[in-house]
């Protein structure tokens, strides 16, 4: 495990299992990593390897069997430090886009007027101008994900956990939104942990990539993605990294 | 003709056609009025006896409206209890389903014994009949929030009350309105049954009384009034639904 001096999130030998009718299933088998403040880290792994379980454990939605999760320097409650964007579309259909974006502020009791004002500014800055008063069913898939990401940011937490936010989008929208996500991240300066099974997405976005093994998951490999951004998807180094990662991921999958 | 106009005109044409067949058959076959009066005769009676019918209609409407509100409120409270309290789900939920096997007809005479001949036994019957669909749909609605959205709320540190108020309650509205749209016409039946068992006023009472006097035209006029009451209630629920669910857009409502 790479040692990071200014770590904001640290997971040490995390074990999670589920007990169901078929007995005990190990999902995470000693996941260890740490994430530096302000960096973009991506968890890359085959489908069903336990990526979502990892995020849910980090947010505190499930209790690990063993292992520790440390957030920041002080022991704040994790719900005050981490904002989580679940995989499925979780915009509330009865709220307009801007009202959806300020949900977190409402729940934590921040003044709603402030949140709306900030939301409006972010909508204008990040390509959502004019969408403020539309209902989710009136938005395209890409727009909905933008609203969901802004909502996650407006929770005002230091760390954003994004669970395949672009998974359900068509390839073109996906590429556009990858660039958009980088914009948001660079301008708003949060720490991001993204989960995906898309190798190219991981390579375009991340500072560091944690490659997870298939279930039960461990961190198989940590890769520093050091190419300067914006990254060309056709540059020889990029292609070489992509092939290496694909080989790593498909090794045990046949 | 626009799509909207077609949707309104088509059922009216069908109804008029059926009434025309009824009128012709009755007149050609010479069916006497005390067996089956022609629609024109019923319409004439409806107009002539309107003041009487109106008075009875108001009574029945009050019974149905109170019954719906009572059944709806009790049903929703119970739905919340069933969704939130496991013990109540295990104990009460099966009994509610079993209670639907008891015909309301069997309870109505008892209610007259307990509550007298006035308004309340009819209100209770109307409430009992509408209660079931409104409760069951309330339960489904409250449970319709998907797990990821609940996760989102919990990750933000939301309280149980916030999850109820901001997620489960608004999410339950579509199913809740479906329950009310089924419950409203059922309550009309419930109130009528209540009046058949024992009443001094109301459309059900008017039907029984006129039947005994072989005034079949008045019976039909009362049935017409009941149908209009049912339509009115359904329409009111639809209007409230459209307003409350305006976020769904025209495609799905």
Give your account of this protein's structure.
The complex is a heterodimer of chains A (254) and B (253). Chain A is of the alpha/beta class and 254 residues long. Chain A folds into two domains: 1-81 and 164-254, P-loop containing nucleotide triphosphate hydrolases (Rossmann fold, 3-Layer(aba) Sandwich), CATH 3.40.50.300; 89-156, no CATH class. Chain A contains eight helices and nine strands. Chain A has helices spanning 51-59, 97-101, 103-108, 112-125, 141-153, 171-188, 199-205, 236-250; strands at residues 7-20, 23-36, 40-44, 66-71, 82-85, 159-163, 191-196, 208-212, 219-224. In chain A, strand 8 (208-212) and strand 9 form a beta hairpin. The mean pLDDT of chain A is 87. Chain B has 253 residues and is an all-alpha fold. Chain B has a domain at 81-246: MetI-like fold, CATH 1.10.3720. Chain B has ten helices and no strands. Chain B is globular. In chain B, 34% of the residues are buried. The mean pLDDT of chain B is 92. The chains are: A alpha/beta (254), B mainly alpha (253). The A-B interface holds A 56, 59-61, 77, 79-80, 82-88, 90, 92-96, 103-104, 106-108, 135, 137-138, 155 and B 146, 148-149, 151-158, 162, 166-167, 170-171, 173, 245, 247-249, 251.
How would you briefly describe this protein structure?
The complex is a heterodimer of chains A (254) and B (253). Chain A is an alpha/beta fold and 254 residues long.
Largest interchain contact: A-B, 29 and 22 residues
Structural class of chain A: alpha/beta
**SSE-based structural type of chain B:** mainly alpha
State the end-to-end distance of chain B: 22 Å
Major sheet strand order of chain A: 5-6-7-3-8-9
């Amino acid at each position: 495990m790479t040692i990071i001096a200014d770590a904001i999130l640290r997971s040490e030998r995390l074990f999670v299992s589920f007990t169901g009718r078929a007995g005990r299933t190990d999902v995470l088998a000693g996941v260890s990593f740490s994430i530096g403040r302000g960096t973009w880290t991506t968890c890359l792994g085959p489908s069903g390897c336990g990526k979502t379980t990892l995020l849910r454990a980090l947010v505190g939605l499930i209790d690990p069997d063993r292992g520790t999760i440390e957030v920041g320097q002080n022991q704040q409650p994790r719900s005050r430090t981490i904002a989580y964007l679940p995989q499925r579309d979780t915009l509330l259909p009865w709220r307009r886009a801007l009202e959806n974006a300020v949900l977190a502020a409402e729940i934590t009791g921040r003044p709603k007027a402030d949140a709306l004002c900030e939301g409006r500014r972010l909508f204008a800055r990040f390509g959502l101008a004019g969408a403020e008063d539309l209902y989710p069913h009136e938005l395209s898939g890409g727009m909905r994900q933008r609203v969901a990401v802004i909502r996650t940011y407006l929770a005002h937490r230091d760390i954003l956990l994004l669970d395949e936010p672009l998974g359900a989008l068509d390839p073109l929208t996906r590429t556009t939104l990858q660039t958009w996500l980088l914009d948001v991240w660079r301008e708003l300066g949060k720490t991001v942990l993204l989960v995906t099974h898309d190798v190219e997405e991981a390579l375009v976005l991340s500072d560091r990539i944690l490659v997870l093994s298939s279930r039960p998951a461990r961190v198989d490999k940590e890769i520093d993605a050091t190419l300067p951004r914006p990254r060309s998807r056709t540059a020889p180094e990029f292609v070489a990294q992509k092939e290496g990662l694909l080989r790593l991921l498909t090794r045990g999958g046949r | 003709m626009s799509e909207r106009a077609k949707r309104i005109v088509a059922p009216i044409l069908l109804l008029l056609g059926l009434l025309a067949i009824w009128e012709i058959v009755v007149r050609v076959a010479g069916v006497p009025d005390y067996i089956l009066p022609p629609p024109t005769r019923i319409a004439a009676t409806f107009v002539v006896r309107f003041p009487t019918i109106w008075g009875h209609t108001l009574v029945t409407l009050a019974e149905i409206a109170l019954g719906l509100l009572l059944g709806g409120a009790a049903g929703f409270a119970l739905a919340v209890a069933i969704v939130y309290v496991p013990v109540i789900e295990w104990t009460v939920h099966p009994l509610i389903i079993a209670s639907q096997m008891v015909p309301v007809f069997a309870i109505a005479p008892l209610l007259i014994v307990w509550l007298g001949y006035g308004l309340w036994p009819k209100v209770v019957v109307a409430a009992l009949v509408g209660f079931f669909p409104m409760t069951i749909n309330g339960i489904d609605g409250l449970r319709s929030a998907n797990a990821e959205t609940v996760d989102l709320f919990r990750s933000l540190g939301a309280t149980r009350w916030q999850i109820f108020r901001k997620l489960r309650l608004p999410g339950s509205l579509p199913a809740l309105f479906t329950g009310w749209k089924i419950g409203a016409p059922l309550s009309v039946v419930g109130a009528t049954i209540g009046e058949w068992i024992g009443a001094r006023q109301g459309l059900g009472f008017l039907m029984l009384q006129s039947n005994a006097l072989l005034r079949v035209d008045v019976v039909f006029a009362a049935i017409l009034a009941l149908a209009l009451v049912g339509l009115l209630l359904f329409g009111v629920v639809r209007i409230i639904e459209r307003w409350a669910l305006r976020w769904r857009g025209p495609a799905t409502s």
